[in-house]
């Protein structure tokens, strides 16, 4: 009986994971010293009696660090010593607030741009100028005007999230089939009802795609922003552990960032499936 595609994909993924961990383990094995000493006591004094350890932590060390962190993820021992769960909560809170602000402003503005050729042409130069600017380039201006590191990070998330939402909404609204709009016009449906009953359901898959892209960008940016401003958050956790030269915690945090990003993408992907339709 042939195996299903999903089962074969899982097996191949596990093989890749085992190969990755195996290579990682071999690369971090202690190196035997090439220098030989006649006197064992002198060898021990010079460090030649024991193999030289690799600077990169082994998979076992990272696993032990992960278990230690996950055993008490919400402890708080002061500004520079908080659990990884607490740091993640700070980061997720900032991302969600900035992301929701981008939705509140980006979706209605995208509707206006998508429905009005005049607004589309008028806004085009501003969008093309502002869109390529790196979100982190706004950070100094945000820190100067807002004067709060946490709210400045939220502002940077907002700036990084709004463009995919705005542009996808405008594209989705402008791409609604003219036949559907003509039917609504023939039935004398008022513009507000047309927007909510015809245009919004038709453009919803494209809007959700923009939100999914925005969430991915926001999660990328928050780590860099928190490294820059410090204080709290998973980005600051990574930077703080680097300053402590604790690479096991740095690698553990990298895996956590990747896992949380994957979960956020899966949630928005599941929501996008709910509004997807077949013509």
From TrEMBL:
Q: Residue limits of the ABC transmembrane type-1 domain?
A: 88-268
Which InterPro entries does the entry mention?
Answer: MetI-like, MetI-like_sf, NtrB
One Pfam entry for this protein is: BPD_transp_1
| Record SUPFAM superfamilies | MetI-like
Sequence intervals crossing the membrane: 7-27, 95-114, 126-146, 152-170, 217-239, 251-275
Which keywords annotate this record?
Cell inner membrane, Cell membrane, Ion transport, Membrane, Transmembrane, Transmembrane helix, Transport
Major location category of this protein: membrane
Q: How does it sit in the membrane?
A: Multi-pass membrane protein
Q: Name one GO cellular component term.
A: plasma membrane
- According to the lineage, what is the superkingdom? Bacteria
Question: A single Gene Ontology molecular function, please?
Answer: nitrate transmembrane transporter activity
Q: Where in the cell is it found?
A: Cell inner membrane; Cell membrane
A biological process term (GO) from this entry: alkanesulfonate transmembrane transport
**Family the UniProt entry places it in:** Belongs to the binding-protein-dependent transport system permease family.
PANTHER family xrefs: ALKANE SULFONATE ABC TRANSPORTER-RELATED, MEMBRANE SUBUNIT (PTHR30151), NITRATE IMPORT PERMEASE PROTEIN NRTB (PTHR30151:SF7)
Q: What is this protein called?
A: Nitrate ABC transporter, permease protein
Species this chain originates from: Halothiobacillus diazotrophicus
């Amino acid at each position: 009986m042939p195996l299903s595609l999903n089962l074969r994909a899982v097996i191949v993924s596990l093989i890749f994971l085992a190969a990755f961990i195996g290579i990682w383990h071999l690369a971090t094995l202690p190196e035997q010293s090439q220098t030989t000493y006649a006197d064992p006591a002198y060898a021990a004094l010079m460090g030649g009696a024991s193999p030289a350890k690799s600077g990169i932590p082994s998979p076992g060390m990272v696993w032990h660090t992960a278990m230690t962190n996950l055993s008490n993820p919400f402890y708080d021992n002061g500004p520079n010593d908080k659990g990884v769960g607490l740091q993640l909560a700070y980061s997720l809170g900032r991302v969600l607030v900035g992301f929701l602000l981008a939705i509140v402003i980006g979706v209605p503005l995208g509707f206006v741009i998508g429905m009005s050729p005049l607004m589309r042409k008028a806004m085009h130069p501003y969008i093309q100028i502002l869109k390529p600017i790196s979100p982190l380039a706004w950070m100094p201006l945000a820190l100067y005007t807002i004067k709060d590191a946490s709210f400045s990070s939220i502002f940077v998330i907002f700036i990084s999230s709004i463009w995919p939402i705005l542009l996808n909404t405008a594209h989705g609204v402008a791409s609604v089939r003219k036949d559907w709009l003509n039917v609504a016009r023939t039935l004398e449906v008022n513009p507000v009802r047309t927007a909510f009953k015809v245009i919004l359901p038709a453009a919803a898959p494209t809007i959700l795609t923009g939100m999914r892209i925005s969430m991915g960008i926001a999660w990328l940016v928050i780590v860099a922003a928190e490294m820059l401003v410090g204080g709290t958050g998973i980005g600051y956790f990574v930077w703080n552990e680097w300053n402590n030269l604790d690479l096991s915690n740095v690698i553990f945090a990298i895996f956590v960032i990747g896992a949380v990003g994957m979960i956020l993408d899966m949630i928005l992907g599941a929501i996008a499936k709910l509004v997807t339709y077949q013509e």
